[in-house]
Hints:
With 743 residues, the chain is mainly β. The chain folds into five domains: 2-31 and 502-664, Jelly Rolls (Sandwich); 55-77 and 196-361, Jelly Rolls, CATH 2.60.120; 99-169, no CATH class; 366-497, Immunoglobulin-like; 671-742, Immunoglobulin-like. β13 and β14 form a beta hairpin. The longest helix has 7 residues, at 11-17. The two termini are 29 Å apart.
Amino acid sequence: MMLFDRKIISLVTLLMSLFYQSGFAQQLEYGPLSTNPSLQRTIKKQTGLTIDSMFVFSTDTLQLPLFDDFSSNKFQTYTPNLSDPSVTNILYHQLTDPVTLLPLDTGITYTNQQTFKRIFNLETGTFVDSNFNSVLVSVADLTNYPVQFEQLSLFPPFYLFDSINGTTVNTTDTVWLTNPPYYQDSARVFFQSVTDQSKYWIDESVYLNNRFAIDPRSIGVATFDGLDGNGNPYQYGSISPNYADALTSKTIDLSNFDASDSIYLSFLYQPQGFGDEPEDGDSLVVEFYQANNANWERVWSVAGSPTHSFKAVTIPVLNSNYFTNGFKFRFRNYGSLAGALDHFHVDYIHLRNLSFFNDTLFKDFAFSYPSTSLLKTYTSVPWDHYQNSTVNRMSDSLEVKVHNGSLLPENYQNGQVNVLYNGNSEGAYVLQGFNLAEGNINFQPRTTHQSFHNLTSGYQFDKTKTGNQQVFEVKSAASAQFPNFGANDSTLFYQSFYNYYSYDDGTAEAAFGPTGAQSRLAIGYNAYEADSILGVSICFVPSVNDVSDKLFLLTIWADDNGQPGTVLYEDDVFYPRSPISGYGENYFQSYYLVDTMRLPVPERFYVGWRQLDPQRLNAGLDRNTNSSGEIFYSVDGGDSWLTSPFSGSAMIRPIFSTRLNNVLGIEEKLNEDRFYVYPNPASEILHVNVVNSEKFEGTILNIFGKVVKQTLSAEIEIRDLAAGTYFLSSPCFKGKVLKFIKQ
């Protein structure tokens, strides 16, 4: 038997899996994420079950108005700082006197079981027990804050044993309990005030992003789902819905207002977007806080549904209990706790006075999304490929989406794209206003305009720059002729050139892949030049089902009239790979070819896998770019290929052999470490390439794992073998097994 990571596969089972067609329905499918790679970060592990050294933060109070379009981060950050003059502390003791509230002595212990003194009468063989009196103790729970106290009747943690013989009392023996459950301990809790009027939200469980909503009215939304602030499910495998994310405001001073001041909360919301559709039993909820009775009151909710454009909601603040200096409001979602499921997106939250019901105050002009690339087709290409190219590679159709939030038509203005390198301007493009407005004289009211811009006649990234890689800063700006929120009428991204090609923007909105054993997934690429591939970088993302122990063979194909053709490379079946999702922001795992070999490929090629298990392997799918025409899959052994039925870009990137290799520490192994057979397929003689052919010994197995031939020669006579697939093993292969076909 051979061990592959956490999965043990017998030789026969593994060989049979090569030809077994699964009973699963075989298709290409996509699904939700179970974690959010964009939120995942390293969490400091607890050193013990105690609140000792915990910081408790109190926030400042806000004044009206409050507005957040989520184009910037308005979430309060909490940084412990012992040197802050506002820091105070309280030392809590686990055991205190319930009357004086003073701590009991250090080292004192108690038990909750009755203890006693026992006296043996040696003359009569009898004994008498005298129970110890209980002691009332106030016991603190030092594992949670706020600290809760409970008064318990406890006992001394020992037994006394005496014996008497007539009138003589012998020496008393004391038997102490081992590890009595109640002992004196302490925990110091620090209290710190944070003051920042530019930060509105006290929690961080929602996901601030610019990719999950469909046609948002500005860059940035707050997304609610079943993941916590660290990008992990609230409850793995949960099938029961409950409240998940919360977006809670700081306290807001409404003490000088009343119902006549026309205070309204307004916002935009959208279910699903590019995420998971919330069911009818799921909901998005808004609650107002009554400080006088410490009660949250639901004032609005909406059930889950398929996605639609953003809708506006306006809620009046009327109840007299709200008009205090402790008013707060919050959004919560009710749905699955098991992953990135049941999405709602919220934008343009606005709390203000002297307003009216229809005054949503969304008169703004903004980009809907940031741009992702100025290149045609790709978001990144190898730097030396770009340098060597004699063709203009700039985009001839840069997509720009802007939204006019005004109730009126607004005159268009030209926009601009600026390219900077190390902070210095390199070049610029004009975004023609007429084009931004889709050929209209004005930006139409309450309309998202989609336009495409040809950049081929202007600036090109400077090919004379030296180095193994380059990164350029790209800033875009566009506006209309009325005052608007300046933070979202510009965008920024970085155009990177490393050693790979990519279609995606680096963020996964879904997981996808074919189903069925022996299914193939292939992503087509047109490289700027023929070169050698070192490997493939894949962003596997956790989804609802764990597939980290499933197996696949990394595969590279040549082109055959626009679809995958001849296999140029495939992993040895005895050394398959497993999906590695890693931990971090949209983590890409690099899978290098065996022995870090360099595989020459033509300009048109395909990279992907052949999977040995029927389950979907969950590659990341970027829903904000679309190269679905380059996503191919086969469920019939590669005899026929289909293209993706849904839009998006596969987060699967070919890694090329470039000048960056030495920086990355990638070295080609010596040729004498290569083992292969030729010709393959063979009909009469099979030659084995090894360093010392005179000492070669090998064993040939059929597809059922049965030994059919043994040899001491590197030239193997195979005329007597039936046509089919065989495997050759040898001690000099260093654990590897070679596959060949007998014609």
